[in-house]
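Fold it.
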Amino acid sequence: MKPGYLTNGLVLLALFLLEAPLVQGQKLSLKQCYEVAQELSPVSKQKLYYASIAHLRDKNASKLNYPSLQLNGLSSYQSDVFSLPFSAPNMENPEIPKDRYQLALSLNQRIYDGNQVKRTRDAALAEAKVNEQQVAVTLYQIKEVINHLFLGALIIQENEKILDTLKVTLTKQLNEVESRVRNGVLLASNANILKKEILTTEQQLIEVRNNKKALLQMLAGWIEKEIPSTTLLETPILEPISSEALVINRPEMMLFKFQAQRIEADQSLLAIKNYPKISAFVNGGISRPNPYNFFRTDLSGYYLAGFKLQWNFLDWGRNKNDLKVLDLQKKL
């Protein structure tokens, strides 16, 4: 489509829109194209997938403080075992077997972890918002493509109406001039001028119809529906511009906001990475020999219970540098 058609269409649209004859056939609106193209896009299906991923991650994060239960089994043979370097009189030293069999159950319960559960869930929620908004950005880009195709075809449609009206007017004038030429009132050159204008108009009609057909074919690909050349494209209704409409409200702006919130959530989660963590544990089972009493060589039970403290207080500044990286990403 040539730039001239776009300019002429905008200028002449208001002058001839009411007088130009309507194209007969079905109607198609810009809103319909939006809805169908976005619904058919594979990107729209990603919303469901991202929602499912976010739900599963939230469920996993909510269970971080649940007690963990682990069953361990062990069967081994070793080359040497502990033995006393002396022999007591009238007493036989127990012989520790070299083969070992053990079945143990371990129970661990977090007591304090720096509120990791809430921060992990916040990070998962922030990630879900970013993914969902990324889909919205992609779908908005589809709207921009539909805008280009639909409005381009709409302007050509109005140009076609104008040229049709012009051709009808020129044909009527030609008939009158030819009648006067036959009566000797006008010269034949006057009729030739009108014939040339009609021919030029017909050539322009062929060109605009080909351009419209090409745009409609591309638009049909987006909505997966054939659009006949007789389809009437409805002119969108423009609403009055308000002060709110002047504010940039593209989905990319909201995406930037959610990305910043996700980084903040990651910073909050990373900040507690080196916090001390306290948990309670119980380990118990049966073993031969007993792991806490080597002199018991029969299959016997055992257990160990207590509290465990983990504190990585020296990481050579790695966590601090990771926080700086996140801060730089937020500024980006």
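The CA atoms of residues 41 and 312 lie 48 Å apart.
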